[in-house]
């Protein structure tokens, strides 16, 4: 039985894009680590991460349109929560959101050469889930004092069909405990750039839509599920509108959630 030849995009990914990203990672990762000798707040390292992300997007041929940035006041710290379609989501978010962003990731990532070292030493939250709790909250407090924001993917995994899955409440407990506003962020088009389970990238147009921050003042830990559902509904409505499928509320919730923010890239 004859197997189909890999597509042009597969060859392009394996023999051009992956080697190029490896070079970007080594060079900018080294600069990022070196910058910590003079900038312990990690702002230079964040600039290196944004440059790394831009190079990846340009090399791949990804064009990004964004809207809603004017809805998020400058000068504050936020938890940006986004749907998750592709491993390209993080490069797109970090180049499009004009805040000092840090991620929440598994502690095991810190062992990876260059990339893991960058995460460990530049203010990102590497969490051992078995020991998460007060220590994580204390690190979030330090992050806030430094003027940093957190970017998280509450679905916990990438979507295979583009629909927005259920949001885990734990990340919203963190936002409530820390008193940080939650900003829903809708991403569309990234799944077409690189699908889950495939080693093939394609050029494409993607869109990022930021919505108004959801305040957490006065919320208790019992409100975490309601906050997670509200953020998920807003994002799902925007994704459904732009990608042409019906939004599916996870727990019978409905309403015009997208009305709380802009729903189209300008």
Number of strands: 7
Strand content: 5-15%
Report Rg. Answer: 19 Å
Global morphology: globular
Describe this structure in words.
Helix content is 40%, strand content 14%. The chain contains 8 helices and 7 strands; from the N terminus they run ααββαβαβαβαβαβα. Helix 1 (8-35) runs antiparallel to helix 2 (43-60) and helix 6 (170-178) packs across helix 8 (224-243). The termini are far apart.
Q: What's the structural blueprint in terms of helices and strands?
A:
Layout: H1 8-35, H2 43-60, E1 62-67, E2 79-82, H3 89-96, E3 101-106, H4 115-121, E4 125-127, H5 134-145, E5 149-152, H6 170-178, E6 182-188, H7 190-193, E7 204-210, H8 224-243
Parallel strand pairs: 1-7, 2-5, 2-6, 3-4, 3-5
Antiparallel strand pairs: 6-7
Keywords:
266 residues, alpha/beta, seven-stranded mixed β-sheet, 8 helices, 7 strands, globular
Short note summarizing the structure:
With 266 residues, this protein is α/β, with parallel strands linked by helices. 40% of the residues lie in helices and 14% in strands.
């Amino acid at each position: 039985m004859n197997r189909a030849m890999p597509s042009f995009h597969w060859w392009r990914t394996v023999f051009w894009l992956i080697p190029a990203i490896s070079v970007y990672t080594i060079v900018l990762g080294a600069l990022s680590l070196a910058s910590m000798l003079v900038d312990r707040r990690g702002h230079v390292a964040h600039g290196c991460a944004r440059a790394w992300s831009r190079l990846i997007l340009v090399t791949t041929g990804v064009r990004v349109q964004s809207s809603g940035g004017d809805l998020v006041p400058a000068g504050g710290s936020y938890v940006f929560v986004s749907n998750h379609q592709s491993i390209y989501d993080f490069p797109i978010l970090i180049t499009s959101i004009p805040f000092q962003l840090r991620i929440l990731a598994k502690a095991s990532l810190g062992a990876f050469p260059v990339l893991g070292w960058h995460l460990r030493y530049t203010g990102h939250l590497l969490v051992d889930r078995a020991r998460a709790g007060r220590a994580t909250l204390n690190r979030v407090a330090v992050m806030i004092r430094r003027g940093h924001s957190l970017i998280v993917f509450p679905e916990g995994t990438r979507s295979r069909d583009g629909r927005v899955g259920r949001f885990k409440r734990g990340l919203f407990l963190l936002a409530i405990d820390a008193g940080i506003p939650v900003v829903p962020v809708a991403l569309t088009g990234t799944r077409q750039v690189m699908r889950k389970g495939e080693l093939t990238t394609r050029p494409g147009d993607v869109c990022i839509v930021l919505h108004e921050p959801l305040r957490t003042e006065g919320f208790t830990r019992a409100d975490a599920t309601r906050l997670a559902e509200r953020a998920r509904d807003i994002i799902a409505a925007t994704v459904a509108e732009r990608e042409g499928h019906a939004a599916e509320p996870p727990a019978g919730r409905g309403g015009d959630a997208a009305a709380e923010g802009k729903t189209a890239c300008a």
